[in-house]
Specification:
The complex is a heterodimer. Chain A is an alpha+beta fold. Chain A has 16 helices and ten strands. In chain A, strand 6 and strand 7 form a beta hairpin. Classes of the chains: A alpha+beta, B alpha+beta.
Chain lengths: 408, 64
């Protein structure tokens, strides 16, 4: 079903290409000012509501009358690869697609893995991983080096592999598949195959963990399920895939864009290297500024809901623009400015409401360690190409850069 | 000021603990634990911030 309100013609296309990493697409400012909940036309031709105001975005995401169930009619699909969508129909719904008590039960089963205390215990190991990949950066005769392949991707990939309990000899299987799934030069059919192969790797790993448990997340999940009666393989596979995929490319893109921004703003970079205590606030600001998940947060109304001056009818789809909400002057002064000293913690880059990112504090930890370590260890780091030659993920589901050539 | 935390609604984002660790903690399952329900001074101000950041709106503040 499509929106029926006629306050605005639904000809605004969404998503829009993000051709500049530092500015929001031109229509955002105008749309947000005129109508914080307006209508857009998605790539597949369907219409959806588009929420661009900060207060309205939080109102929608906290309101349980909006469902996250992507199998429901009306759930919008802004990035629409229907083949990936079909996969979701044939498997148990991932955590992000569950509502209410069903969602709470699954989330609570893994929540204990992401407490601040547990994450704090991971800090030294994450530091080692970051140091190792910086150590392995090539000597000067093979520079420039692509930071995406040298640091941005391998750090979160190894961190999540170790957390899940993927043994060292299987890392290649996971890293090559996750890399293939996110690389634009890989054709769609091959990316889909990489996804299936990744699931096969994970399924085999889960079977092994059942007979040879280790000190890792997946083994603990198996033990927890046994205590409750029986091991739910499909649920475990879905959780493992979700954690691996969600915790991987997102963090990688934030590393890449964060480094890019700090290289382009030497004053702010100096701030970080002079006072590591300023890094947490800078990380929040970078998360707000780039809002890499601008097109990924969607809901479908389960009943008529009044928000932002319009009525969203039951079965109508809603997309919450993280980037627009995070650039709303009602919530952030001078929102177009990158200001690492501002109080930006109320951004919605990890979403808001019951689905707010489960791994957000792991991501924060990884980003802090990477930014602190990289600029301290390679103070002469600089872009190897002009900033406008960096290939950006203008049309990807999660924003980022395909490559970041750097030298020093 | 008095604080109430709804452990049923809590989704374990940890935002409150990061904002004011003198008032909020997490149990082993990631669910909010109140260290005091009557914060004062700066802790009260930070508890207000925590309530506004809480993604599941699990924190309730009752001003005197």
């Amino acid at each position: 079903m499509t929106p029926t309100d006629t306050t605005q013609p639904p000809d605004q296309p969404f998503p829009l290409a993000r051709s500049c990493p530092f500015t929001e697409p031109e229509p955002y400012t105008r749309l947000r000012e005129q109508q914080p909940v307006s209508k857009v036309r998605l790539r597949g031709g369907e219409q959806a509501w588009w929420v661009s105001g900060y207060a309205e975005a939080r109102a929608v995401l906290a309101d349980r009358r909006f469902s996250s169930d992507r199998r429901k009619d009306g759930y919008p699909n802004p990035n629409g690869d229907p083949r990936f969508r079909e996969r979701f129909r044939t498997q148990p719904p991932p955590m992000v697609s569950l509502d209410g008590t069903e969602h709470a039960a699954v989330r609570r089963s893994v929540l204990g893995e992401f407490t601040l205390e547990r994450l704090s215990a991971l800090r030294p190991r994450i530091q080692q991983i970051v140091d190792r990949f910086i150590d392995e950066m090539p000597a000067c005769d093979s520079r420039p080096v692509d930071l995406v392949q040298a640091l941005s991707l391998p750090v979160p990939s190894l961190v999540i592999c170790e957390l899940l309990g993927v043994p060292y000899e299987d890392h290649d299987c996971f890293q090559s598949r996750t890399a293939a799934m996110t690389r634009r030069t890989v054709p769609p059919a091959e990316r889909l195959r990489a996804f299936d192969e990744l699931q096969a790797c994970l399924a085999a790993l889960l079977t092994r963990k059942e007979s040879e448990p280790g000190d890792d997340l997946l083994s603990r999940q198996i033990a927890q399920q046994r205590e409750q009666g029986a091991v739910d393989h499909a649920r475990l596979l879905s959780t493992a895939t979700g954690l691996l995929v969600a915790g991987h490319e997102t963090t990688a893109n934030m590393i890449t864009l964060g480094v890019l921004a700090l290289l382009e703003h030497p004053g702010q970079r100096a701030l970080l290297t002079e006072d590591p205590g300023s890094t947490p606030a800078a990380v929040e600001e970078l998360l707000r500024f780039f809002s890499i998940g601008d097109t990924v947060i969607a809901r479908v109304a389960t009943e008529d809901v009044r928000v932002g001056g319009v009525t969203i009818k039951a079965n109508e789809g809603v997309i919450v623009s993280v980037l627009s909400a995070n650039r709303d002057p009602a919530a952030f002064d001078d929102p177009a400015e990158l200001n690492p000293t501002r109080a930006a913690r109320h951004h919605i880059s990890f979403g808001y409401g019951p689905h707010q990112c489960l791994g957000q504090n792991l991501a924060r930890l990884e980003l802090r360690i990477v930014f602190d370590t990289l600029f301290r260890r390679i103070p002469g780091l600089r872009l190897a190409v002009p900033v406008d030659e960096i290939p950006l993920k203008t049309d990807a589901t999660v924003y980022g850069a395909h490559e970041l050539p750097v030298t020093w | 000021m008095r604080v109430e935390a709804d452990t049923e609604t809590c989704v374990g984002s940890g935002r409150c603990v990061l904002t004011e660790p003198a008032v909020f903690d997490q149990d082993d399952d990631g669910i909010v634990v109140l260290l005091t329900d009557r914060p004062a001074g700066r802790a009260a101000a930070r508890a207000r911030q925590a309530a506004s950041l809480c993604p599941s709106r699990a924190l309730r503040l009752m001003e005197p």
